[in-house]
């Protein structure tokens, strides 16, 4: 299927949806060419490649909203018919207010020349060698290279195209079985992708972990790595979705204009930057733009699609997902201090490399816990004196944001697994009196 056939089929799905009774219809169509290399024990394990074409369908009929995915192009009529029947059997949504009727977004088509498999394998080899050169015994991780064509067609007459490529590596380095460090790196260009830098950082962290001790509890001033800050920033993005506010899932409900963080916290969504997460329009065709979420600790507003914007009597921020407004590429403003200065000024606390299993006990209140992993370093008078394991961060999101005392001028662009699910450009952050509890009943 060439690009014109791809676009034509997308428009036919919209037309057929209207013919079958839909009032509004949107189809976001994707063609992806993805290559993956997985490696462990300092060698490549597997090389995968996927070529996929799929169509995300949104319809509304008499205020009844249905979203589904069409994976077989020759089967789209059956899927649309099924979506119509589901809408007929559903209840109307009280909050649905329609889709974008016009847009000033522009299409974007860049030339794409795929890199060879050998180049991708060389990236992995460079990372493994950098890991060993920086003191790690073994390295494990994943490399991705992806090109995506995206075409949008709506019942409002909007038709837009964008494409782009990305490189990404996640690498964990081990100095021994209990000593690991983790780092990620990404780029939209082969010219600016240097996975060995991620390996150098991960290996350097692993090398500083020595016989980690368990059982630490209490409140400790803590420097959070950009991988942790990206997780927190992703949560801020999610909490700022107007859909989550309406649904009662956000601790930011009723807090616009109020302090939700320290004066060190400025977070915005900006998918116009040439980084992983780059977009030219959202899922209903509105142009993406830079949107302040938190400025100097003050919540400035929520992320909107057309429907939630009309509900809140404001304008869309260009953040439409097919179901709800969502952040696309977050950014947290850096500070004036270097990471080394922040570490040197830490009198008695922790450095935390990474977290996973972030779960809310109450999302409306913002109470959550998350488990640190990889390098958890004990710091006293600016010196690393040991390492820690088997701990949990148990906090409240707003309380944590308010305890951010300083942020570094260095920043990294992070997206990793489910924790930092939204690509985020973030600094290191010093959090005062971070609440640390045990992650297991028994700690040996």
Helix content: 10-25%
Number of helices: 9
Describe the global form.
Answer: globular
What's the β-strand tally? 17
N- to C-terminal distance: 59 Å
Give the strand content: 35-45%
Mean pLDDT: 95
Tell me the major beta sheet: 6 strands, antiparallel
Helix and strand composition category:
alpha+beta
Low-confidence stretches: none
Lateral strand order in the biggest sheet: 3-2-1-4-5-6
Q: What does the radius of gyration come to?
A: 23 Å
The total tally of domains equals 2
Topology as a string of helices (H) and strands (E):
HEEEHHEEEHEHHEEEHEHEEEEHEE
Structure in words:
The protein is an alpha+beta fold. The chain folds into 2 domains: 3-203, 2-Layer Sandwich (PmbA/TldD fold); 211-444, no CATH class. Helix 3 packs parallel to helix 4. It contains 9 helices and 17 strands. A hairpin with a 3-residue loop joins strand 16 and strand 17. The protein has a 6-stranded antiparallel β-sheet with strand order 3-2-1-4-5-6, sandwiched between helices.
Q: Could you write a compact summary of the structure shown?
A:
By secondary structure, the protein is an alpha+beta fold. It is built from nine helices and 17 strands. It has two domains: 3-203, PmbA/TldD superfamily (PmbA/TldD fold, 2-Layer Sandwich), CATH 3.30.2290; 211-444, no CATH class.
């Amino acid at each position: 299927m060439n690009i014109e056939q791809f676009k034509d089929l997308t428009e036919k799905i919209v037309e057929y949806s209207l013919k079958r009774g839909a009032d509004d219809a949107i189809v976001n169509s994707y063609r992806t060419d993805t290559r993956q290399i997985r490696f462990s024990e300092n060698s490549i394990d597997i090389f995968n490649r996927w070529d996929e074409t799929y169509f995300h369908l949104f319809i509304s009929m008499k205020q009844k909203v249905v979203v589904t995915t069409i994976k077989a192009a020759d089967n789209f009529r059956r899927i649309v018919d099924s979506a119509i029947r589901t809408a007929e059997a559903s209840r109307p949504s009280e909050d649905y207010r329609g889709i974008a009727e016009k847009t000033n977004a522009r299409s974007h088509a860049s030339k794409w020349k795929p890199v060879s498999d050998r180049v991708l394998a060389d990236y992995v080899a460079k990372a493994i060698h950098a890991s060993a050169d920086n003191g790690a015994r073994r390295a494990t991780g994943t490399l991705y290279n992806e090109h995506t064509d995206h075409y949008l067609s709506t019942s409002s007459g909007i038709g837009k195209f964008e494409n782009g490529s990305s490189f990404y590596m996640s690498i964990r380095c081990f100095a021994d079985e209990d000593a690991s460090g983790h780092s990620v790196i990404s780029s939209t260009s082969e010219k600016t992708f240097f996975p060995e830098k991620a390996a150098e950082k991960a290996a350097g962290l692993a090398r500083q972990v020595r016989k980690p001790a368990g059982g630490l509890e209490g409140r400790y001033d803590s420097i959070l790595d950009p991988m942790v800050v990206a997780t927190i920033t992703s949560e801020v993005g999610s909490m700022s979705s107007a859909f989550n506010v309406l649904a009662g899932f956000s601790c930011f409900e009723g807090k616009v204009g109020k302090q939700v963080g320290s004066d060190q916290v400025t977070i915005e969504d900006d998918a116009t930057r040439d980084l992983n997460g780059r977009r030219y329009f959202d899922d209903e065709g509105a142009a993406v733009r830079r949107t302040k979420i938190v400025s100097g600790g003050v919540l400035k507003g929520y992320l909107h699609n057309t429907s939630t914007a009309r509900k809140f009597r404001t304008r869309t921020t260009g953040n439409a997902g097919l179901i709800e407004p969502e952040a696309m590429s977050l950014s947290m403003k850096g500070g004036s201090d270097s990471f080394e200065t922040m570490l040197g000024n830490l009198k008695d606390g922790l450095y935390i490399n990474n977290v996973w299993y972030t779960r809310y006990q109450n999302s409306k209140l913002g109470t959550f816990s998350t488990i640190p992993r990889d390098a958890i370093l004990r710091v006293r008078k600016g010196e690393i004196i040991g390492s820690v394991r088997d701990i949990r961060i148990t906090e409240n999101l707003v309380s944590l944001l308010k305890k951010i005392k300083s942020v570094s001028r260095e920043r990294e662009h992070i997206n990793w697994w489910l924790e930092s699910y939204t690509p985020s450009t973030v600094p290191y952050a010093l959090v005062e009196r971070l609440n640390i509890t045990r992650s297991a009943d028994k700690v040996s």
